[in-house]
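User: I'm writing a tutorial on reading structure tokens. Could you give me a worked example: one chain, its sequence, then its tokens, then a sentence or two explaining what the tokens reveal?
Assistant: Sure. Here is the example chain.
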Amino acid sequence: FIRMPEVTSILPRVFNEFKKVFNLSETVKGKYAHPEIFYQRGWTPPFTELALACRGRGLPDAKENWFIGPEFENDPTRLNSFNYAENIWPEEVPDFKKVMRELYGVLYSCGQEVLRGVGHYLGKSEGYFDEMIRGGPTLLRALNYPPVKEDQVGKIVWGCQHTDINLATVLPASTREGLWIRRRDGKWMPGNAPENCVISQVGDMLQYLTAREFISAWHEVRAPNHPTTEGRLSAAIFIHAHPDFVFDPRNPRFPPITASELLYKRLKAIGLA
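And here are its predicted structure tokens:
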């Protein structure tokens, strides 16, 4: 948990704009869905992602989301890659762009500080992680988990058990409970941050880089076991290494691999690529 009252103060405005976007009709939102770039920008429809842990059960996540990434002007070489597609903004909700950019900035700064602390612990040189993530395709995700209808109780998955692909994830408080995180001892605990705090989680890239000295955080979002009239709004920023960065922990179990290759393998595994 990291104390960040500046995030808490903007969340009412942020979630108000999220609600406007996700309340748009599926026809309208469908204009902003781009499977050709693996949904890494714009709208991802419900029931698109199928986490590996739910593959046998055939229950894709009921959530929908909207991705934005970093903005690099006048750099066409970046825009040739799905890592750096242009951001997509819904013209029907003009203020969504403003709150997403604002949230991106404060959560990115938090993730940067977390990784600096990790670098200090690992004995890395100052700026090691700053350089690794500079120019990286860090993503901010607006998330909407739908209300649970009476006939869906016990039959709907909001977010199946999974780990994140990236280095570190930062999550502000959501509009309702639901996040659960697995501890090292295998027990699950609610992911409820103290007031004015955010949660930071280890992702697969950091686990790979450290040959599992840091372990990816298994987590899930559990739907209520009763009907609801309201869903759950949430957000998360996924701090990524630059695509060309090579993860090489000097361990035969973890051969060298670029951040881009590792990302693509995971996107393919969950059915987006």
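What the tokens reveal: The two ends are 32 Å apart (CA to CA). The chain has a mean pLDDT of 93.
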